[in-house]
Amino acid sequence: MALLDVQDLAVSFVTRNGTNKAVDGISFKVELGKITAIIGESGSGKSVACYSLLGLVPMPPGRIDGGRALFEGRDLLQLEEKELRAIRGRDIAMIFQDPMTCLNPYMTIGKQLMEPLIFHNKVSKEQARARALELLAEVGMRDPESTIDNFPHQFSGGMRQRVMIAMALINEPKLLIADEPTTALDVTIQAQILKLISELQHKRDIGVIFISHDLAVVADIADEIVVMKQGKIVETGDREDIFHNAQNPYTKKLLAAIPSDCKQASTTAVEPLIQVRNLCTWFGQGKGKEPVKAVNDVSFDINRGEVLGLVGESGSGKSTIGRSILRLVPVTSGEVRFDGTDLTALEGRDLKSMRRRMQMIFQDPFASLNPRMTVYDTLAEPLLLHGIETRKTVAQGVLKLMDDVGLARAFVRKYPHEFSGGQRQRIAIGRALATRPEFIVADEPVSALDVTIQAQILDLMQKLGREYGLTMLFVSHDLAVVRHLADRILVLYKGQVVEQGTGDDLFERPQQAYTQQLLKSIPGRSLLA
Amino acid sequence: MWRFISLRLLQAIPVILVVITVTFFLVRIAPGGPFDSEKPVTREVKAALEAQYKLDLPLFQQYTSYLGDLAHGNLGPSFKYPGRSVNELIAAGFPVTAELGLYALLVALCIGGLAGVIAALKPNTAQDYIPMSLAMIGICMPSFLLGPLLVLVFGIYLDWLPVSGWGDIPGDKILPSITLGAGYAAYIARLGRAGMLEVLSQDYIRTARAKGLPQWQVVLKHSLRGGLIPVVAFLGPAFAGLIAGSFVVETIFQIPGLGRFYVQAAFNRDYTMILGTTVFLSVLIVLFNLLSDVLAAWMNPRLRAQFGSH
To answer: What's the order of all strands across the beta sheet hosting A439-443?
Structure first.
């Protein structure tokens, strides 16, 4: 008998705008000792399906329309709240996407870890603490004795996710539901967490549901894969089936979206547009403290028409380099030449006219768009500000931009919240292009997006790069994404360039240990080999 | 932490200095003087009085001399209560007002906090609408209306509680405390509701539910602390506001507190009393704001750590 047997589960949300079928009659099984991956884009219903099993979907607006979910023979959907609570956190535990927000910031991790153990098993505080320490050590926390009484903010993202995993496992559940547990993490940390989950699952021989939007992530660990789209299951199979013998066109599209190819080296004339020399950007910590050397003596050129990829994990200084070039943060020392002019010496009006030629695209398209401005206002503002269009011609200019970035003209009066993440990023790209820049800094422009959308946006950026003759600095923590787009790649570690070369150089012949480690962390490497 | 506190205290000095200066010259601009009472006094008597209280000196000299006294903690003699200093009068009135303010704050915190939390648990249902509508009424109803209403109902019709006095008859502190606290209870209810709603929508609340905790534990252990931080930050200004605004209630219920002295001083042009009370209250406001900021920061582990490192 399967550990969990979901049959014809249907969940909908009743809102003012009608009923939205989030999960539309899905069936799947989870076996003890196996990892079942549920793959789908945001909105495909994969999380809702799992939350509804545990009564974690708020009702209303949520509503379970039908189906059964047999967990060890008992139908979870029919249980009383009290019975369900006894299962939740004891027999079935969960890990969530964002370890930054999923731990209570007002409680020490020790208290949070001990809580489910004390609540469900009525053990003493001393016993619970001892168990918590054991588990922290098991999930790879260094020196648990001295960190157990720390608050969540004192840990890095990866460490917090380890705490979440320890918390989920503390009652030795039979089923673990992991909802995008690595999506918010750097690629190297992601590899560690995936390995940890896989190891813990083997050791305990428990069932795992692993929810992800990214097929590549589960390539190395999943036994069974369920592919979901718009509330329905489009394909189910074991790993071999899905990766080597996919039948459904949507599954094939997901597979194709895994960035694997390498950009062909371009043959444009070598004429540097950007020259960075000995750039240092330090952030002061106040008197008497060592400054944080975010960028420490970095030099490189970007040629006209070239896309330079900048790769590194969080804190490596890659975003700071982009911001330093645009003078969005004060440069400590060094030189940034744009078309021969030293930007670090410019002030006021000169800087403003230079800024028109350089633009930035940010990671989070929602946070960087003004929620009170329509697309029209957002795109018209830079056009008018820099005198590219007059009041009379601005409407035409806006529509042309919308065509260029692939947004339907009908959306022109809509506000940012009415768009999906991918569409918002298109708006952000349109805004960046509005001033006809020569140079664009793209700071993790696709890392907040689903993989298929990611591929679309990357294609769009590539196409626009050619059409507009753009020079680009493409910042990302994801080597695979950068390889897809960049002519040359710079690998950054702790504020310094550790290696540079073409995509092929780095992928085939990495010289530095750090680059090799980054390459090893790319999810789904087994597919590329 | 100490650095933060001393910095804030230093910043308060110019603020209080401005308050003193503005008040000092404003009360002088107001027509009339402390000795213009109904019964006219002879010119000689008036001149003697003015000399005694240094009112014959040029205005600027009076100002510097006042600041000099103030630096020694001396708020000067009262003009209307001969023989008594402003310090003595404040020392007599403040404990009563402080007690009233404290009770009112407790009333506000208990009623408001509870209403806010209850409302946030089931937003947009009757459980939310009823306390929040009451809160709106509480904010809109001035204490000079609520006080007499309460007196009418509980003091006269029902005859449960005494209608005036302070500490003379058992129970005479209840109505003034409720009257003074009601408006603040309403503010706290709204702040508490907003704070709780914010916290209850956080991911870590979902984590707590996923652990299998029942609703009351999710609320008490995981939500209350974060949700009530805005309320705590409001307590300082609220307490200062309660004390500064207590004169209406003190008048209604015949309470011998600081507020009544303050209002009488303004009518009487009792220059030193007005100034002294203003200085005292502004110091109080600064202190309580600081206190609640420190408390709110201390409740947030992240900020607490930052303070610790300084």
So the answer is: A358-361, A439-443, A471-476, A307-311, A488-493, A496-502
Domain that holds residue B124: 87-309
State the nearest Cα–Cα gap between B221 and chain A, in angstroms. 9
Check: pTM over 0.80? Answer yes or no: no
CB contact under 8 A, B203 and A102: yes
CA A511 to chain centre: 27
Give the separation between CA A441 and CA A155, rounded to whole angstroms. 30
Residue B220 lies in a domain: yes
A96/B214 CB distance under 8 A = no
Q: Please indicate, yes or no, if residue B22 is contained in any of the structural domains.
A: no
Whether residues A153 and B222 touch (CB distance < 8 A) is answered with no
Q: What is the DSSP letter of B245?
A: T
Which among B209, B211, B301 has the least Cβ separation from residue A115? B211
Q: Is the ipTM of this complex over 0.85?
A: no
> Out of A102, A106, A116, whose CB is closest to B225?
A106
Mean pLDDT by 10 residues, chain B (310 residues): 82 88 86 70 77 79 86 82 83 88 91 90 86 84 87 87 80 88 89 90 87 87 88 86 83 85 82 86 87 85 66
Burial class (CB in 10 A: 0-12, 13-18, 19+), A470: buried
State which residue of chain B sits closest to A287, comparing Cα positions.
B310
Residue B73 maps to a domain: no
**Are A93 and B210 within 8 A, CB to CB?**
yes
- Report residue A174: phi and psi, to 5°: -90, -25
